[in-house]
Each structure stands twice: as structure tokens, then as C-alpha cells.
Amino acid sequence: DTGVSQDPRHKITKRGQNVTFRCDPISEHNRLYWYRQTLGQGPEFLTYFQNEAQLEKSRLLSDRFSAERPKGSFSTLEIQRTEQGDSAMYLCASSASGSSYEQYFGPGTRLTVT
Amino acid sequence: GENVEQHPSTLSVQEGDSAVIKCTYSDSASNYFPWYKQELGKGPQLIIDIRSNVGEKKDQRIAVTLNKTAKHFSLHITETQPEDSAVYFCAASSKSHASGGSYIPTFGRGTSLIVHP
Q1: Cβ–Cβ below 8 Å for A42 and B107
Q2: The pLDDT of residue A99
Q3: How confident is the model at residue B78, as a pLDDT?
Q4: pLDDT mean for each 10 residues of chain B (117 residues)
Q5: CB distance B103–A101 less than 8 Å?
Q6: Between chains, do B42 and A107 touch, taking CB under 8 Å as contact?
Q7: Residue B47 C-alpha from the chain's centroid
Q8: How sure is the predictor about A91, in pLDDT bands with cuts at 50, 70 and 90?
Q9: φ and ψ at A43, to 5 degrees?
Q10: What is the separation, in whole angstroms, between the first and last Cα of chain A?
């Protein structure tokens, strides 16, 4: 396992459609994070899982957004009824519970809503 | 909540020169400060970090300093090389009891470093 992987790398969708992204963390990491990054900005925290439990959600995570990590391994982030303002890079990161400081990021999924 | 300011937004240097990026934060409870390097089309990569019980940390050509009293921290890159060209992000975070003991960082807006050969 060489790192965090995300799929797809790019997604173009029309406004109003639903999209789902997948993140596979580093295998021994039990903490998983989702961030959103827009052009010229740093990553903004969306939500966080420890194993399968979703422990924290940002106020940025509107009702149209939902994230799951059903078996404590991979995670999915779904956006319903996409809007043009959802266009961004969606980043996933993972960390180990024993070393709760360092987070390792995946390559991201670039979402474009037309 | 935490607010992180990062300067400059763009930094252009000649190969071999030093580069310094500065950040300030607002929450005195923050005690972990990572720095990330992000290349075009890739996710951020952790390059160095510092915790509040340490004032300075060095790793080869990269060093970070932290002044908790003034709430600012800096990244220093010496002998810059063209492959150092990227966007660098600072972040500040504290341990959140609401999040199972993890650290949720607040990022600065990034510094685009350009190293000219």
C-alpha cells in the first residue's frame, strides 16, 4: 500500500445530478478525513471518521452532502443535487490513531459542475 | 474558531537562495503546526511539522520555527532548487475532544513558491 487513493480523479457533471466519490485510506489508518479545496485556497475540513463512526462534521457540510465509512475501511462522499458552487477539489486524508497528528492526503477528486 | 493567515501569497526566488513563508494563528489552544507542499494536480504532502513544546525543528534544507507567545510560525527553505517550486500551506490545529482525540487543522491560503533556475 503506497498511500491514500481516490476515485475518480476527475468528474464532470451537470447541475442537479448526484455524484459519489470514493477514498481508500492507508491500510493501517483508522482515521479518515474529507476536505474541500477551491482554487487559491487551502483545504477546508468537511468531516472525519474514526473507524466507521462519523465523529465530526463541519458546518460546510450541507444537507446535500453525506459521507459513509460502513466497514471502517474505504469511505464514500455523496453530493446530491449538485450546484455550480460545489465545483472544487475533494481531498481525502487518513491518519493512524496512535499518531493522531500526521494526516496523509490522497490525490483528490476534481469535480466540475456545469 | 481558528484563523490562519499566511504570507506572502507568491514568492519568487533564484535557485540557491533561501525562502521564508510566515503564518499567524488566532487560537492559543492550537498546539500542532504542519506544513504541506502541493504540486499541480496532486494532494498536499506533509513535509514537516512542529508541536508547541518545541521552538524549532530542522530536516535537511527545511526548518520551521514557532513563537507561541506571538502566535506565529515560519517555514524556511535553504538552497532552493527548481523542484521546490510548488504551493506551500501552513496549518494550525488543536486536539478536539469532540473528534475522538484527532487534530483537525485549519489551513492558510497557501504560498506559491517559484524557484528560477
Answers
A1: yes
A2: 59
A3: 97
A4: 94 98 95 94 93 89 95 97 97 75 89 97
A5: yes
A6: yes
A7: 9
A8: very high
A9: -60, 140
A10: 35
Cβ contacts of residue B65 below 8 Å, gap of 6+? B50, B55, B56, B73, B74, B76
CA distance B35 to B45: 8
Find, in chain A, the residue whose alpha carbon is nearest to that of B34.
A102
Q: Are B10 and B111 in contact (CB under 8 A)?
A: yes
Burial class (CB in 10 A: 0-12, 13-18, 19+), A3: middle
Residues 42-71 of A with CB under 8 A from B: 42-45, 48, 50, 53, 55-56
Locate A82 and state its grid cell: 449538485
Residue of chain A minimizing CA distance to B111: A40
Shortest distance between the Cα of B108 and any Cα of chain A, in A, equals: 6
Grid coordinates of B97 = 475532544
